[in-house]
Amino acid sequence: IDSKLPKVGTTIFTVIGQLAQQHNAINLSQGFPNFSPDSKLLALVNKALVADHNQYAPMQGAMGLRETISEKTENLYGRYYDPGSEITITAGATQAIFTAIAAFIKPGDEVVVLKPAYDCYEPSIELFGGVVVPVQLEGPDFKVNWDVFKAAITQKTKIVIINTPHNPTGSIWSASDMLRLQSVLEGTSILLLSDEVYEHIIFDGVPHESVSKFPDLASRSLICSSFGKTFHVTGWKMGYCIAPKELMKEFQKVHQFNVFSVNHPAQIALQDYLKHSEHYLELGAFYQKKRDYFLAAIQNSRFGMHPSQGTYFQLLDYSTITDKKDTDFAERLIKEFGLASIPVSVFCTEDYDQRLLRFCFAKTEEVLDQAAEILNRI
Ligand code: PMP
Ligand code: GLN
């Protein structure tokens, strides 16, 4: 077969998930909570089903849900997005990202991707003939080296993809990072795809810097978010994209033929829930407690750690334990110790040579205790 994606295999989340299951390992690999969403939200899904919201939703998404997203975005970040023309509900952030790339990338267009990068960006770019231009994030905080970034921008750059809070490193962008990006992009027609799925999972009182706060960035940005992360419902695959009208028009041209519209009862439930709950405002504190619990439980282990600043992931450095490659060490952890994590190299360029594993702490204290007991023994 003449594969369109010859270098792509099965995603690490599926591979590690299966291995973890085979070995009955504690699974801190794929990012998802092991606890239930709010029972009020579940009741609202049932209500939506009984009220017979069982046929196609509008192509752009249920209007009430778009309105609540518009209000939330304006309240939090100070920018108004028109629910009629600037918001689309998608099948998770994954479909939002794929659709944004499909709508704008032509063969030969370059896309700057900051590495490590979440794994869905690059295959989507390559499917449409785009060229990935990787830029390595640097130092323990995975910051942008602006000289390297500027050198990566060319006449062919069509999109820059950023992700804050950042999967897999847990680093975040500050306002000054955003202003720096704004000045580099000023005067160009480069688009920004801003992956903000962890916008509400940010710690230590630091605010999330959405690109929507920065007028010049917002005017060139498609922002993707995910209800899965915010409401503990990753299995629903519900998310959205917001962007200025002229960008959203192109996005919807693809969306309408890619999926047309997404799960209607879930949209109605989320719309009703968002009207009466600001649960997301407490999400940072909720996950910060889990981060702190996990880190305190392994503080005497041999693993090195910089506390995650956002997301529900924590990187652990095992360089004092072994020099083995992370993929090998992750496999050994599953098979010999019964603990699953994600090797960071899968998000990196080929020359990556660090000793880091990613652990998901969106788990009950009981599971975090079990994981810590193993990590303390290694
Ligand atoms: N972007 C990042 C950075 C993610 O971590 C994820 C989820 N793992 C996604 C996008 C996709 O989100 P969803 O599950 O809503 O498709
Ligand atoms: N975003 C999740 C993670 O990083 C995984 C989603 C997926 O399995 N594709 O763990």
From TrEMBL:
InterPro entries: Aminotransferase_I/II_large, Kynurenine-oxoglutarate_AT, PyrdxlP-dep_Trfase, PyrdxlP-dep_Trfase_major, PyrdxlP-dep_Trfase_small. Keywords: Aminotransferase, Pyridoxal phosphate, Transferase. SUPFAM superfamilies: PLP-dependent transferases. Its cofactor is pyridoxal 5'-phosphate. It holds the Pfam family Aminotran_1_2. It comes from the Bacteria. One of its GO terms (molecular function) is pyridoxal phosphate binding. GO terms for cellular component: cytoplasm. Gene3D superfamilies: Aspartate Aminotransferase, domain 1, Type I PLP-dependent aspartate aminotransferase-like (Major domain). The keyword Transferase applies. Belongs to the class-I pyridoxal-phosphate-dependent aminotransferase family. This is Methionine aminotransferase. It comes from Flagellimonas flava. The lineage of its organism: Bacteria, Pseudomonadati, Bacteroidota, Flavobacteriia, Flavobacteriales.
